[in-house]
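Q: Okay, next protein. This is Zn(2)-C6 fungal-type domain-containing protein from Hypocrea atroviridis. I've checked the sequence twice, so it should be correct. Can you predict the 3D structure?
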Amino acid sequence: MSGFPPQKRLACIACTKAKRGCSKQTPSCRRCLEKKVICRYPAPRITPPYDLVFAEDGAVSAVPASSERSLLPSPASHGSGERQQQQLQQHESHTPARQSVTAEDLRHPWFLSPSSWTIDHSTNSIPSQITFSDEALTYFISQLHTWLRQYASEGHCPFIHPQLWKIHLPDCIQDAFASLSAYQSKTPATERMVMRIIENRANNLVGGHSASANEDFGVVMLDSACHLARTQALLIYKIIRLFDGNIRARAQAEKHIDTLSLWARQMWQSANLALSSDHGDASIEGGNSNGPVDTQLRTDGSITSTWQAWIFSESIRRTYLAATLTEAVYLTLKQSWAPCPGGIIFSGGAGLWEATSPSSWFNQYQQNLVNSVRCIDGNQLFTSAKPSDVDEFCHATLIVSYGLERFDRWCNESM
């Protein structure tokens, strides 16, 4: 780090959080080395003339800042794979900066990069077989019910964006919403009839999408929007029936639990396939887009188009996470453990999901300390950010993955 006086270096994030003296050494300070934790140094709050680059082993180095650096890195298909990987690592390092975004960055944002759709099945931080504490299970199930009530009353929730089906409302989403509304308003006198309606709607949904013996064939038979709609609809039915307490409803829902997992995987693979093909690189001709479903995983480079592509991309990511975590929680209730679904990157930054316009989303993106989160890298988030830096959906994934006690400790440490 020649050229940068040591006395001006900030204390590392871990020492700052713990209010302890920091030796400010690289690649790791003395205290982090003794505690065997990742040592990371924050960039100055004022945009500096250099970038802090962190290696996997925790090493930090300074490089001259590029005039074209951005919050929205370009995908690997438009540059070297090594450079794209570095951009994604920088994007996940949670370093605060208000950076200018170029037209090229808006045209090729990080969330449309094929490399951002990789599922990390490494077991470095979370074992391949995971268990959840009773408190975390109770909290997550309660959150699922809260989200469904929100969707029924407000038309959106943390995994169904208010803009997603604003223009194109698929039949399966209409059926799921009507069934959910009936469920939320049921009485003891109507409960049996409502549960029969939900059972029939769920059976019709699954029956209308017969499973193919070839899983890859099932991926290409539908576009990403159809995959997303049917997975969200089945997830709604699944949450209602698995955790309602009705024995028959639970037994019927168990028959479709493998189907939800299959559909979630196919939805993810469909998005990955779209971005890996010529279709994923195609921009929107003439800027004619009627919303996220028309835009899907493309952008013409405008803020509006990029926001719509982000909505569609993030909806897939959150639906996949909600579906896989719902299955994992239920399996844990049954057998005390569940297979780890792997880690994906999603946008957990505060205010992004709630943004009501392209400009407010873009402004929030530039202001946020944290934007993207890899769900198996929670320990890094605990040492480099505050609970207020991420949103409700991110809170839920952290609690179910790391436990309510660890999350509460993070909240107390940040006060």
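A: Here is a summary of the prediction. The two ends are 33 Å apart (CA to CA). DSSP finds 18 helices and six strands in the chain.
Q: Noted. On to the next one.
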